[in-house]
Write a structure and sequence with these properties.
The complex is a heterodimer of chains A (109) and B (115). In chain A, 0% of the residues lie in helices and 57% in strands. With 109 residues, chain A is mainly β. In chain A, β6 and β7 form a beta hairpin. Chain B contains no helices and eleven strands. The chains are: A mainly beta (109), B mainly beta (115).
Chain lengths: 109, 115
């Protein structure tokens, strides 16, 4: 079966750095997305990785290792508005999007 | 602004009473999707349209139907809602499909409560 694992919940402090991990076992790989979802709202696109390495976009960075089936989302200089769920999603060999259940990130002052 | 719009934002219905959720897009995207998302769970794809071509997921209950009368609009019909259908329903679009980097654009969602 296809599976994406993320921690259920994480807590971090305002101004700090947090890393949210995602591991996947899918039938093939055609890319990995990270989406942010605030409570009661729709997901919004954060990043897309298809090649190994780190993609930096402002305070957010996303890393991919295809050989390890592993990605992480790095959030720097945390702000209260970053409190949200972060969803990892993988595109498999059939171009189906496989979603993780998301990591709820709680930011404390 | 180009966007994906869902109405209503909140919908309450009674057990067994049909309900229709609507979605419109101004992005002129070929693909429209309907997802069901329950609390703290991953979004679950119900079906999608590639232009007029309807694609149903194998495990989507027959109770759920969809219509896409034109490029801009797509509807989700729940014929006889059960208590287990209480969830957030997300409409999304993508320019195309079958390519790795096709990101999804989501509407704001409709939170459906079945009482």
């Amino acid at each position: 079966g296809q599976n994406i694992d993320q921690p259920t919940e994480m807590t971090a402090t305002e101004g700090a750095i947090v890393q949210i991990n995602c591991t996947y076992q899918t039938s093939g790989f055609n890319g990995l997305f990270w989406y942010q979802q605030h409570a009661g709202e729709a997901p919004t696109f954060l990043s897309y990785n298809v090649l190994d390495g780190l993609e930096e976009k402002g305070r957010f960075s996303s890393f991919l290792s295809r050989s390890k089936g592993y990605s992480y989302l790095l959030l720097k200089e945390l702000q209260m508005k970053d409190s949200a769920s972060y969803l990892c999603a993988v595109i498999d060999s059939n171009y189906q999007l496989i979603w993780g259940a998301g990591t709820k990130l709680i930011i404390k002052p | 602004d180009a966007m994906v719009i869902q109405n209503p934002r909140y919908q309450v219905t009674q057990f067994g009473k049909p309900v229709t959720l609507s979605c419109s897009q101004t992005l002129n995207h070929n693909v429209m999707y309907w997802y069901q998302q329950k609390s703290s769970q991953a979004p679950k794809l119900l079906f999608h349209y590639y232009d007029k071509d309807f694609n149903n997921e194998a495990d989507t209950p027959d109770n759920f139907q969809s219509r896409r009368p034109n490029t801009s609009f797509c509807f989700l019909d729940i014929r006889s809602p059960g208590l287990g259908d209480t969830a957030m329903y997300l409409c999304a679009t993508s320019r195309d499909r079958g390519q790795g980097n096709e990101k999804l654009f989501f509407g704001s969602g409709t939170q459906l409560s079945v009482l």
